[in-house]
């Protein structure tokens, strides 16, 4: 699984997925999820994608200037 970012709202996380999956066709076959987590008194929404080789996907995104991290 790849984490693609943490956002202040679910809508912003979904918009980021739309942008990223439109820009990088190799993301379109992945399953997207938004996971809410508490951080102090705020809720953050983690954008994640599952499927394929997470390490390879993250490397390709980083090469293109995007940030990501491999989860589990």
UniProtKB/TrEMBL annotation:
Protein name: SPOR domain-containing protein
Domain of life: Bacteria
GO molecular function: peptidoglycan binding
Gene3D superfamilies tied to this protein: Sporulation related repeat (3.30.70.1070)
PROSITE patterns, per the entry: SPOR (PS51724)
SUPFAM superfamilies tied to this protein: Sporulation related repeat (SSF110997)
All copies of domain SPOR, residue ranges: 1-72
InterPro entries, per the entry: SPOR-like_dom, SPOR-like_sf
